[in-house]
Each structure stands twice: as structure tokens, then as C-alpha cells.
Amino acid sequence: MSKLILTVDDSASMRMLLKASLTAQGFKIESADDGQHGLERMHEVKPDLLITDINMPRMDGFELIEAVRAVPEFRGTPILVLSTEFSDDKKARAREAGATGWITKPFDATKLGAAIRRVCP
Amino acid sequence: MSDELDEIQAIFFEECTEGLTIAEEGLSAMAAGDVSADVIAGVFRAVHSIKGGSGAFGHGALQAFSHRFENVLDEVRAGHIPPTADVTRIMLGAFDLLSDHVAAAQSGSAFPDDAAMLEQLDAILASKGAAIEDSIPAPVAEADEFGFTPVAAVVEDFDSFGFEPVMVDLDDLAPAEPAGWTVRFGPSRGAMANGAEPMLVIRELEDMGGQVMGVDISRLPGLRDLDPEDGYLIWTIVLPATVDEQAIRDCFDFVAPDSLIEIGRAELSAVAPVADATMPIAMPVIEEVERPALTLVADNIAPAVEKAKADVPGQTIRVDLGKLDQLLNLVGELVIRGSILSDRLSPTDQERVELPELSRLTRQIQDNVMSLRAQPIRQAFSRVPRMLRDLMAETGKQVSLETTGEMTEVDKGVIEKIGDPLTHMIRNAVDHGIESPEERIAAGKPAEGTIRLSAEQKGARIVVRIADDGRGINRERVRAKAVERGIIAADAQLSDEDIDSLICAPGFSTAETISNISGRGVGMDVVRSNVEALGGRLEIHSVPGEGTTFSMALPLTLAILDGMIVRLGKQRYVLPLTNVIETVQPAPGQVQATSPTSEVIELRGNYLPVRRVGEMFGLSDHRKPEESLVIIVESEAAGHVGLMVDTIDNRREVVIKSLEDNLHPIRGLGGATVLGDGSIALILDIDALVVATGFKSALKGMAA
Questions:
Q1: Exposed/middle/buried for B305, CB within 10 Å: 0-12, 13-18, 19+?
Q2: In chain B, which stretches have pLDDT less than 70?
Q3: SS (H, E, C) B346-375
Q4: What is the pLDDT of residue B558?
């Protein structure tokens, strides 16, 4: 069973790039273009893993993570942040919100795959 | 893949162009004096996106420059650097250079010289924007003269979460002999929160050739003090010397920073210090650890359970849905056995074997199992907003959505099955109900239409309503179409409600042009039969010019029903008790005929319509009303109605067995059940029955 991943990023090229590189590694990808849609898609597709950007219009990544964690069904769903941000403050905030891990953009597709398997075997 | 990448890259450059436009507008606004948070955040986000994509597509120079630009914007955004005229002027300059960088990356030509600008940006950062003219460009250690050096964040593309990388200094490692690695790993409480799973880390280490040498259980408290969400164990794992240290560290990427993580070169003997409290060798680790806990169980189970309750509110466990269904089924069987017992035992014997108590407990188990399967209906509602946005884009109509009652709990099986009918009714409301903005304005309505989606519990049913404020059903057109399609006779006398319900007749479609939206070959007839297959009913209420409301009344559960067993001739039927108001033994003359086919009962000065259920099912009997019983029931569609039956047997909980697995849905029947004596009784669907009798042609399909 290939794992289903929901990627949330406001940049279409980033979404496509993620989809192309992760599909090639055997993952199934769904995507959403901001936090608000991300939350709706969570309920629709119930993914094995959520990967989200931080800076997005209409509900940023932190808010999305908090909202997702507030849903009992998603309490145990791993969430990775994929962002160009890298400050310790932001990471601490993401962890507080309920993120499982943080990956700094740009990403190397193979390493990203390995990181995904680290939280979602 | 490379074609695909080119394509994605082309989209990235389009996004860059958009981002540059936004940034330019924002910076111009700032230069003109608008330094509101929104404007600054907009510029920041635009530059940030360009940076993110440029890294992903390998445009290092563009990435490096946008990163430095973003740093300044981030400080301005955070309020650390005031957006003075000078600062804004320099940022406009940086913007121009950013545009050049994008152009260079796109065309593959030489990068612009950005050294001077980078110095200026760094000066702003160093001086926090104060007195830029005088400030000396701050020395930036990592930047070489071209300013191209990738910043730290770019290099560490797998950064952990502030995870303090361990106690081992790289220098200390240098002289190490080729000894194996010893890793000590004690996941903290946090390491098990947020969907993280420490066991995966251990597995990954094992995949790299690691071996669990022992588990330190010295921190493990007694069961009484054990917090199931805390981490007490420390694993010792040995890895071959050939494994790369970074690879080991990578495994701990996402482990919470307060966990114990020690990575060191060590002889196997170094493991010894923990050996006191350590279980020997790997394989039986789990068993070994559990053993002491198990011996405590008998003594401490009650306090432990209490403690778990007190300390860990909202703790949950995942259960396979199949197991719940199995449980529900077994409870159903238990209910049937209970009925059989109460049939066979005399009331005294029932008391003697404590059957009433057993029934009460069975009832409680039943309620509990039901509630396990209950979920808020929000799950079914959640896909509506997205769908509406798509529909608005397709139709050019404007619609806002109001939802209420989304926390109403319903059986999971019901939630799963109402998705499709709901989707279709929403499509229908947008496509046929809501008018175009121009039409609405002409009709004196707001340009934006409203769809109200609501759910509420009514007795043993949940009622889901989809109400639009559109044009309502055009009854003339519906009628004409129904005649044209041969669904009704040209001279048929139909009430408004009858005409409205025609849109659910098989093969009916009023849309003059089949639209992309509703016209998918699925009509309202399929919606209705889906709802009825769930044991529900679909009702339509429409006011011309004001809108249409679809109501789906669905059973809360698909499994058990409190019923009244009635007799018709030799047959027994089950009436859902929730519908029953009272039963009446009519006196002579209390039931009167008002026409050859209709009768009423006089009840405390009111007249209620009476249906002879036996006749409706083709069991023609010509009993006098005073030899029968009239059961007054409440129906959604027609209010209070009397149903005439021969006698009442008793009241009983029955387990609903679906007929749909083997038969087509039969209007008027909600299923069947097995009675205490093993015989089968059909369950009446009061509302369908009442509606059907009001509509003679429908009776044909009902003869059972």
C-alpha cells in the first residue's frame, strides 16, 4: 500500500515539484494551495502524512497544524513542515503547534523520501 | 521527468513574475507612505516564495540574493527595522536587482553584480535601519566577494527541530579507532507526541545493521505511577563502525530535542554500565519489560484505571471498524435472544432469572456500541465548501454557504452513505435553484445566493436540510415535462407537493440544457432511492421565487429499533415506536367515511385521516372499525394520521435486517426482523406509508 501524502503549499510549481519527485518514489500525492484548503482536504483524503509550507495566505502553516491537531482523528498523523524558513523560533513554534518534523527548502528528493519514511514507514 | 521538470520550472518563472509584481506594488506603496503590516507581509511573502522555488530548481545565485533580501524584509515585518524612506529606497533597489536575477536565471545568462547591494542590505541589518548613510557595511563572515555563498540553511537541508545534536564533539571523534558505534536513545514524552514514533528510529537503526543490546528500565515506575504517554525506557543500540555518523544522526532528525540521545564510539564493554538494570540481549526485550508490569496488574488494576482517567483526558484508541461492526452484530443477536427468552418465560420466571436486569444491561451495551460508531456529521459537510467554490467558478453564480448543526452525531455508516446524495443536492441547488447575479438583482434579491446546510436530531432520526434562496421549482414546467414524459396523465389532479415530488420521478430532468453540473446522468430519482435505501426519506418544499428546501430524514443508526408489534390478519408487522402517539379503540361511529376511499377518525373534537394498513398491503379485510385498533402516528409529511390494524401484540426491540441486500427497495417497508418465536415480521416505514397513500399511483409499487 503506497502511502498517501497531502502537500500544502501556495506555490503551484512547488506543489508540482513535490508531486513529481514523490510520485516517482512510490508515494501517492494530494495537494492543497493554502492552509484553509489544506484543512478541508485533510478531512476529505485522510492522508498518512501531511507536508505543509509555513508562509501561506489564508491560514498559515502554524494555524493549519494547530487546526489539524485539534481534530481527534488526526492526533497521530505525522506532520512535516517544508519551508525555506529555518530559525529556531519558527521550529519551536511549529513543534509547539504539533508538527512532527521540519525540513528546510530546497529539498533533495531522495533525502526527502528518506525523511518521510522516517515518520511514515 | 526532465520534460516534466522543464514544465514545472516554466510555472515557477510565471510565479516569479507574479511575485515580482506583488513585491513592486507593495514596495511602491511603502515608498508612498503605506507601511501597514499587510503590505509588508505581502512583499515578504513574494520574495520568500521566489527564494523557496529558486532553491528547488537549483538557481543558487537567485536563491542567495533573495535570501538576503528576505532577511531584511523579515526584520522589517517583525518591527525590528523601521521602514524609513531610506530603508524603502534600498529595498526598491534590491527589488530591481532581484528582477535582474530572475531574468538571468530564466535565460541562463550571467548573474548581475549584486555585491554592492548586498553590502547595503547587510548594513541595514547591522544598524537596524538607523543612520544608514554613516554606517560601515558590517563584515559578513560567510559571504565571499560575490555574495554567492549559500547560507547555512541551504546547506543543512535536513535540519532537525532545534534538536541539539548530541554530546559528542566532532573533534573528539577524529582519533577514534574503528570501534563500533554505541547509541543510547531515551525518547522523551515529546518524542511520542505529534504523530512521532520512536520505534521507527530504532527500526531504521536496525536496518543500518544496528542491534538492540539492552533496555534500561531503571526509570520505569510502578504501574500506579505509570503515565502511559510518558517515556521511561532507554535503549542501547550498537552499530558497526562502517556506518557513517551523519547517517545515524539523520535517524534522529525528527526526535524531540529533550530526548536522551547519545552517540559515541565505544567498545561493546561500554554498554556494561547500564547492565544492572538492563535486560540482556535484544529479541525478547518487549516481553521482558512487560513481565514486572504484569505481576502488578491484579493488585493495581483499579487505581491504575482511575489514574489513567484522571491524568489523561481525551485519550483515544484506534479500533478497526470491522471489529465494531462485529460487536454491533453480536449485540443484535443478544437482543434477539433476550426477546426469545421473554417470550418463553412467564413473568415470574423472568423475574427469577433476572431477565429485566439482563435486558437493561443489554440495552446499555447497545447504546454504548452505537455511540462508538457515532461521528459528527461535519465529516460529510466538510467537502461542500470546496465543491461550492468549484461550482461558482463553473457557473459564474455567487453563493455563500451557512452550516448549522455540523456536530450532530450520526452512525458512521450513515455518514459514509449520505455524501453522494448531499453532493448531488448541492449541485442541484446551484444549478437549478440559485439564479445568476443579474437575475437575482432584477428580482430584488442580493446578488449572492445563500445555501443553508443544517443537521438536527429529531427523535431517532437525523434531519439534514439543504435550503437555497433561489427561484424555487417552476411547477408549470415540471408538470408539462411530466406529461410529456408520460409520467402523469395530462388531466391529473395534483397538489403543489405532488408536482414538486415529480422531480424525483425516474427519468425526469427539467434542465432545458443538460448542464455540466447536474446533468451527469444521475437524477433526483437516484438520490431519492439512495436515501430510501438508507431507511431515510427525502422531502421537497419549494416556494416560487423564494427557494427550495430538500430535507433528508435519516435513521441515526442502521441497526436497532424500538417497535410495536401489530397484527394484520395472520401477519405481524413492526411499527417504529418513535412515531406512535397513542392507540385508540374506536367506538361505533367514531370512524367515518368521507368518500368511498377515505375515512377520518374523530378524536377529542379533531378529525384525523385514517388509513387501513391491511388494504394498503392487499390483505383485503372488511372489519368494522370498532373491531379494529387505530394507532395514531406522527409523520413528517402529513402530521398526525391514524393507521388501522387488527390488534397490537406487544412492544419489542427489534434488530433491523435489511431487505435491500436481496430485494429492491419497497416503499412503505423499512426492513424486516426476526421475532422471539423465530418468525419474521416486516417493519413499516410510517412516513413513506403515509405519503404513498396520499398519492394513489404510488400504491401500485407497494403491494407486498
A1: exposed
A2: 1-2, 129-179, 266-315, 459-460, 507, 509-523, 533, 535, 557-560, 620-621, 636-637, 660-661, 692-704
A3: CHHHHHHCCHHHHHHHHHHHHHHHHHHHEE
A4: 61
Answer yes or no: are the C-beta atoms of A38 and A52 closer than 8 Å.
Answer: yes
Pairwise CA distance, residues B10 & B1, whole Å: 14
Pick from B105, B19, B94, B99: nearest CA to B60: B105
C-alpha cell read off for A120: 511514515
- Which position has the higher pLDDT, A33 or B382? A33
Residue B196 sits at the chain A interface (C-beta within 8 Å): yes
Q: pTM of the predicted model, to two decimals?
A: 0.40
Continuous segment of H or E residues that includes residue B336: helix B321-344
- HSE (side-chain half, CA atoms, 13 Å) at B327: 16
Question: Which is it for the CA torsion B152, B155, B157, B158, positive or negative?
Answer: negative
* Single-letter residue type at A39: L
- Residue B668: its pLDDT value, please? 78
Q: Which residues of A touch B378 (CB under 8 A)?
A: 43
Q: From edge to edge, which strands make up the β-sheet containing B399-404?
A: B399-404, B449-458, B461-468, B547-555, B537-543
What pLDDT score was predicted for residue B557? 66
Rounded-to-integer distance, Cα B558 and Cα B535, Å: 8
Q: Which residue does chain A place closest to B66, by CA atoms?
A: A84
Contacts of B2 (CB under 8 A, 6+ apart): none
Q: List the B571-576 sheet strands across, edge first.
A: B647-655, B560-568, B571-576, B680-684, B669-674
Confidence class for position A47, pLDDT limits 50, 70, 90: very high
> Strand B580-584 and strand B629-635: pairing?
antiparallel
In angstroms, rounded to a whole number, what is the distance separating the alpha carbons of residues B681 and B683?
A: 7
Residues in chain A with CB shorter than 8 Å from the CB of B66 are none
Is the CB of A43 less than 8 angstroms away from the CB of B159?
no
Q: Could you count the other beta carbons within 10 Å of the beta carbon of residue B482?
A: 23
Cα-to-chain-centroid distance, residue B625:
52
Average pLDDT of the segment spanning A90-98: 87
Give residue for cell 460487536: B327
| Number of neighbours of residue B551 by Cβ within 10 angstroms | 18
Distance between CA atoms of B151 and A84, rounded to whole angstroms?
11
Whether A14 and B52 lie within 8 Å, measured CB to CB: yes
Surface-to-core class of residue B106, CB atoms within 10 Å of its CB (0-12 exposed, 13-18 middle, 19+ buried):
middle
CB-CB neighbours of B337 under 10 Å: 13
Separation CA B309–CA B445 (nearest Å):
54
Chain B residues close to A20, C-beta within 8 Å: 1, 4-5, 8
Q: Where do runs of H (alpha helix) occur along B140-210?
A: 152-155, 170-173, 198-207
Q: State which H helix or E strand residue B29 sits in.
A: helix B2-31
CA distances from B138 to A47, B68, B126, B621, B630 (A): 47, 14, 6, 104, 96
